[in-house]
Automatic annotation (TrEMBL):
This is NlpC/P60 family protein. Keywords: Hydrolase, Protease, Thiol protease. SUPFAM superfamilies: Cysteine proteinases (SSF54001), SH3-domain (SSF50044). It holds the Pfam family NLPC_P60. Residues 161-287 form the NlpC/P60 domain. It comes from the Bacteria.
Amino acid sequence: MNAPATTLDRRLTAARSDLAAEALRGLVDAPRYAQGFLRRVVDPVADLRREPRPDAPLDTQALAGEAVTVYDEHEGWAWGQLAGDGYVGYLPAAALGPADPAPTHRVTVQRTFVYPGPSIKLPPLAAVSVNSGFAVARTEGDFAVLATGGFVYAAHLSPLDTEAPDFVAVAERFLGVPYLWGGKTSLGIDCSGLVQVALAAAGIAAPRDSDMQEAGLGRPMDIAPDLAGLKRGDLVFWKSHVGIMLDAVRLLHANGHHMLVVAEPLAEAATRILARNGGPITSVRRL
């Protein structure tokens, strides 16, 4: 018997009341199924929302160059699934373009500009965030010429297989960035987005949300009553929250208390979160 879509994680299941992905045939009941077609994010960032409305909750963001399988388009909205982490939702159709050319390079600095020509004196066409992907056709002086048009300072790009040696150092660049539920850029980011973006820069695929990350990343570590024994890169989880240890004492996290990405003593954060009914630390995971 086919399982109803409601028994599956709606965040990762391309199924709704009237339509489901062809790959889910036999797993979910739907009036019709669609094979889907591949598109790629062409805007600097595309907001993925829970419903096809600009005021609907923001679940996550897709960065330039990310592939999306689109199953339906209607009234300016594309309903699809992100290739990177499998998240399903609605994106502005205008933010998507042809699947080819596929990215060859990605941005390895916090933010950089796309220019209309090989000069920093030209007004930029766009500002793009770390991990954004681009197909580079050639270099011209200090600039990479994009296959789709535009010029990016070449030193700000690296081949796709380049991995940052320390994902925590990538996360540290976000210090002071505003907290944004669903955000994944230096203009706004949330707790699990910070973890996902930093790990992606180091070549480590991570789920999008903190509960998925707690279930799927690293191995569990014992939590000492005095929180001793932690080290740089350990992930600390609460219900609906996650942070990254900078060292044995300090936690780096995007949080709704400061509404920023901050570094603070783990003991202080844990005490505050518990006092505000956020619950105790649920686990520590070591990669």
